[in-house]
Amino acid sequence: MSSIPVLMYHHVSADREVTPQDFEAHLLLLKRGGFRTVGLDELYEHLSGNREIDGRAAMLTFDDGYADNWICAYPLLKKHGMRAVVFPVTQRADEAPPGVRKTIVEGAQSPDTLKDERGPAGFLSWDELKVMSSSGVFDVGSHTHTHRDFKRHTPYEDLKKELALSRARIEERIGTWKGAISWPWGDCEPTWAGEAGYRMAFTTRVGANVPGLSPFSIRRFKVRGGSCGKLAFRLWLYRRPLLAELYGRVRG
Hints:
This protein is α/β, with parallel strands linked by helices. It has a single domain, classed as Glycoside hydrolase/deacetylase (TIM Barrel, Alpha-Beta Barrel). It has helices spanning 20-32, 40-48, 68-79, 90-95, 113-116, 126-134, 159-174, 190-195, 229-238, 241-251; strands at 6-9, 35-37, 56-64, 84-88, 138-140, 180-182, 200-202, 221-222. Strands 1, 2, 3, 4, 5 and 8 form a six-stranded parallel sheet that branches. β3 (56-64), α3 and β4 form a beta-alpha-beta unit. α1 (20-32) runs parallel beside α3. The model has no long low-confidence stretch (mean pLDDT 91).
């Protein structure tokens, strides 16, 4: 029985911890290690025990839906024949300027994410998300509609409405629905997600993703820039269920 490591990114930009050069090094590390990248459907089938994963597999995920996911990450994934999952905040996609921007392989500069991070131009447009999805390079999930600070022990009466709205926007603008959410800050409410038509939820907990694990409790680890040595170790670790679970209990 194998575990599928799920990597968590936010930005890929020259002014962030993971630069485009770092990200391409990560992709090359995966290729040299014999890994292939899987999408949401395959991970769901793996967790449900309906599909045995052949060889080494990993999943790459991006939270928030920043513009650099299109400008910098998308062309590198396409170049190396790999895929990923993006979880946009759907309200921010609504507010982003429409259209499709140039990517770094088309001569665009890596964006100034520190300046534009919270402005409309700092996020993916629906047009870009549509291309990312239709190309097969990215699956599109939800990161809720507004990215409010949801805590299970404080009132959040309209969460169900927000989950339904985010799903509706993705179905309307992308044309496909994979049924996946990445919870802001990792806080989760699987019952409400299931009632809103979601079938998978990604957390910020670490551990093993093995058949039998609840698809509403998918584990991920945050990827950093710099040397690939730590990433290589984590890929090795999180493929091994027992070690991954022990490490997860220690690290929380």
